[in-house]
Amino acid sequence: MAPVAPVPTNRELPSKESAIFKSILKFYEHKQYRKGLKNAEQILKKFPEHGETLVMKGLFLSHVDRKEEAHEFIKKGLKNDLRSHICWHVYGLLHRGDKNYDEAIKCYINALKFDKENVQIIRDLSLLQIQMRNYEGFVDSRYQLFKLRAAQRMNWVSLAIAYHLLGKLDTAEKILTSFEETLKDGNTFDFEQSEMMLYRNMIIEETGDFQRALDDLEANEKKILDKLTYREINARLLVKLGRISDAEQVYRGLLKLNPDCTAYLKEITEEVLPKWLELHAELASQYPRSAVIARVPLAHISGDDFKSKVDVVLRSNLRKGVPSLFVSLKDIYRASPEKAQIIEDLVLSYLESMEERNSFPLQFPTTVMWVLYFLAQHFDLKRNPTRALEYINRAIEHTPTLVELYMMKARIYKHAGDLDEAVTTINFGRELDLQDRFINSKCTKYMLRAGQVERAEQTITLFTKAESPDPLGDLVDMQCIWFAYESASAYNRAKRYGRALKHLHQIDRHFSDIYDDQFDFHSYSPRKGTLRSYVELVRLEDRLRDQPFYTRAALSAAKLYVKLWELKEAGPSEAEKKAQEDAQNLSSSELKKAQRKARKAELQAAEKSNTPSGTPDKNAQTIQPAQKKGVQAAPVDEDPEGNKLTDPSVDYLNEARKFLKPVNDMSPLNFEAWILSALVNVKRSKFILAIRALLRAKALSPQPDAQVLRAELSFYKAYKAAIANSSVSPAVVEVIESTLPEIYPSSLLSGSTDVPGHIREFWKQSVAAGRDSPRAAVIVAKELKLIEDEAAAKKILDAEEKKWVLQPAGGWDTLKSTVELQVGSSTFVYELSNFSSCLLGGS
Amino acid sequence: MVTIRVATVEDLMWVQNCNLMNLPENYQMKYYIYHAMSWPQLSYVAEDHKGRIVGYVLAKMEDDTGEVPHGHITSLAVMRTWRRLGIAEKLMTQSQRMMVEVFNAQYVSLHVRKSNRAALALYRDTLKFDVHDIEKKYYADGEDAYAMRRSLRNLNGE
User: Fold this and answer.
1) How many angstroms separate the CA atoms of B145 and B113, rounded?
2) Alpha carbon separation from B12 to A555, A601, B59 (Å, rounded)
3) Do A817 and A831 meet the contact criterion of CB atoms below 8 Å apart?
């Protein structure tokens, strides 16, 4: 034992209690918390001030859901014995349980002062260090463990991982190699060893020495059980080494096992036609069931060749009745109007031959319905709702019980702008198959889009746990992000901003939880041996918020906070005031309702017995994901409208910034995020941050860009005003002034042009560059103060943006061809076709 | 057009989304991560031409000691709009092969609700599972489950 500081007089226990204390530690190790608690109390009866026992009692309490008492006892115990490594260790565990990782690390470090070589504490510290991505600290701790317990295999492996993550690839590799040499190989191949070989190979590949990686891979072939991964790595390395024909052989082998993998196909066929086409024909005859192989050439051929090939694909899929046929051809439509026309002609000819001459070969009774379904989708894409509806209604006449048809019909209405009719239609479809959650989810989404929020909530909860007192809460437990986002958007449209923000914050919390989830795997994975997956997980968590679910939620939240800020600055309009009052009244009556409901449910629950909810798969024992729900009613939400989030005392702009930061950091190519960031920082008067964001946005978008213009003007005006007020520090002014010429033309900066003149010049350039879309025109008009309410134009302009490349045969007659915009107290009507020039008075 | 490939850690949030849209039995993300960290070779996804996950199989090996090694299907779903392409079958075929190759699985098992006729038909007729047993009140809402099995002995690696 290493020499420790003199033990305080009250730490030593007489032999009987000392033995009990040792058993407490064992109970903790074996997770027998109640037994441990009982025994701890035994000691405390005689020695109520014994620090180490007090903290252990606290620790046990924290595991039986008595969190507050746990804190009390642990703090008390620590106070009584500040030089005990056990006390500090337990305090660290408490912080870790509360996710205060920085505090926990401090505690462990303190604990180690009193027991330098305590393996348990060093291990716990290492887990926190990797969680906080302190790679150097992680290496230090793992190195210590390696020295102290070299016989434990896990310590070698974890040390290698630590060096790998720190970037010291060679060291990591050496450790794994030395370790491998200590394992005398018998003929027993084990999973862990196989994974370790692959992990080490991954490290070698990362050094860039592909030849060595290939040699290493081939040398260890027999030990690697995962033959699929072996071949994939083999092929990849061969490509990296330029040995394309060798790689091709391996990919062919892989295709044999999985003819539906486009990745393999791509690698073989990244070559020029026509050899490529021959290759395809050969593969197609080898793997007739592979949809992927049949489909890929279609993108590359044209004319009659295309026609004959697509005819085969269309006929067989229409016969079979494949709902996704149209969707899977969409990329071809977008790429080539001629091919789209060929498809249209073909499918219409099928219909004709079926209906007029009844002469479609190998027709099934349902084939004509699938043809009609296809045509409905086709004309919907062409934005011809009239014709699309015609076809879908005929299909429905043919087969009134097919859910897919109602989904499509609802889509047509949605695209045409009639959301209520879309809901009615899709709901009808939903009622045809109450067992299918997919149609339930889609129907819910349509309801939310149409602003029917309560109805949506009732619909989606048809598929949550029937007995639950809090079905919407269950959706949150299961991290149902799509519903949270759509709900937020619906509430936003309804101007119930607090509720919208609640959902968006919920999404953010899910991401935080998913980041925290990795913690247990820092110890689990090295033990299990799946090292490659573990490193993938760590790397994924590093950039977790680059996930599109986060991005769109964050951007919505940022925009909402900006809107709240603008409302606060402007003082709410009468309409806004009324909307807020209504929301307030709603919230207090809803609160009463919720309280009544909760009381009722509590009474009911007290009568029945409720089983705790667990995952349906009973075998999920090792890691416990779900929490247990006790015999309680749902917690009453004290703030259903989210008023705390929208309260005027909240620093809206700072909240917006907090949402935007991860997007800027992890999705640096997201243009909208930089624009928003610029606007937010302008409003916060953080001019350097704003100008940086502006430059990033500008670099990402083809110029000239109207959104960039708007952000630039916003910056310019705010900055000039701040200069006039002398509210910008000289250091900042210096930086900004040197950057301004990168953004603004000298004519504006020198004053020879004024702002409106600058804008008109911008528009001239936009027209010349072909960047004068109606949407850009609206932004420019707003900046010139020609219009006030650009939101009104947006809906119609959305249709303009989704316009298909081909001019719709049905023309624009079924859609609005004009835009109405308000200027002051008058409403002007503009023709869509020459909208831009009319709005801005010619170029 | 849909490609079939091994699920990566990155796919997991999309798999969870697909599961929530299609099935009433849902899991927290940690459980998905647990699968990927324990049996990275066994879960597969179907991805459309736009990179969206339209189907998945989430699979594991059963840890019961004393029993012969066998695989288990935690969850399987294909978006309704992508059905009739044999995606479920393709996902299962790949997963089952890996169960044998990497883990020496002798059979694969799964649970299905007694009332779920569509799933039953898929597993029994297309995927060649047999009903092995009935587990009473298996599901959280009290419904019985068919415990189904398929032998993997004849899947000897190609």
Assistant:
1) 5
2) 23, 36, 13
3) yes
Inter-chain residue contact B140 with A614, CB threshold 8 Å: yes
Q: What is the pLDDT of residue A287?
A: 84
DSSP string, A664-679: HHH-TT-HHHHHHHHH
Whose tokens are 């068919």? That residue is B146
Q: Which residue, A226, A289, A520, A262, is CA-closest to B42? A: A226
- Residue A827: how many CB atoms within 10 A of its CB? 11
Q: Estimate the share of chain A in helix, then strand, then coil, as percent rounded to the nearest 5.
A: 70, 0, 25
Q: How far apart are the first and last CA of chain A?
A: 87
A543–chain B nearest CA distance, Å = 10
How many residues are there in chain A? 843
Interatomic CA distance for residues A279 and A234, integer angstroms: 22
Full-model pTM: 0.87
Token pair listed for A281: 């024909």
Tokens 């045969």 found at = A809
Binary contact (A616, B140; C-beta < 8 A): yes
Mutant choice from B15, B18, B20, B138 vs A, greatest count of A C-beta within 10 A? B20
Interface test with B, best of A405, A438, A448, A516 (most B CBs within 10 A): A438
Q: Is the Cα dihedral A610, A613, A617, A620 positive or negative? A: negative
Q: List pLDDT tens digits, range A416-474.
A: 888 999 999 999 999 999 989 999 999 999 999 999 999 999 999 999 887 788 889 99
Residue A626: name the closest of A636, A641, A640, A615 by CA.
A615
DSSP-assigned letter for residue A718: H
Which B residues in the span 41-60 are in contact with A, Cβ-Cβ below 8 Å? 41, 48-50, 60
Which uninterrupted H or E stretch holds A738?
Answer: helix A730-743
* Among candidates B28, B48, B82 on the partner chain, residue whose Cβ is nearest the Cβ of A479: B28
Put simply, the answer to whether B34 touches A477 (Cβ < 8 Å) is no
Contact flag A261-B5 (C-beta cutoff 8 Å):
yes
pLDDT (average), residues B1-30: 95
Closest CA to A54 of A13, A102, A16: A13
Task: Measure CB to CB from residue B8 to each of A467, A536, A547 and give the nearest one.
Answer: A536
B68 CB burial (10 A radius; 0-12, 13-18, 19+): exposed
CB neighbours of A329 closer than 8 A, spacing ≥ 6?
A: A298, A310, A343
What is Dmax (Cα atoms) for chain B? 45
Distance, in Å, from the CA atom of A814 to the CA atom of A801, rounded to the nearest integer, reads 16
Q: Tell whether B67 lies on the interface with A, counting CB pairs under 8 A.
A: no
Touching check for B136 and chain A: CB below 8 Å? no
Q: Choosing among A260, A432, A541, A623, which should be mutated to test the B contact, i.e. which has the most B CBs within 10 A?
A: A260
pLDDT value at residue A618: 39
Whole-number pLDDT of residue A572: 61
Q: Do B97 and A439 touch (CB under 8 A)?
A: no
Give the pLDDT of residue A674: 96
Angstrom distance (rounded) from CA A135 to CA A126: 10
Is the previous residue joined to A745 through a cis bond, with omega within 30 degrees of 0? no
Round to whole Å and give the CA distance between A271 and A803.
Answer: 34
- A816: its two tokens: 């609005």
Task: Compute CA A798 distance to the chain's CA centroid, rounded to the nearest angstrom.
Answer: 25
Q: Which residues of B touch A262 (CB under 8 A)?
A: 1, 3
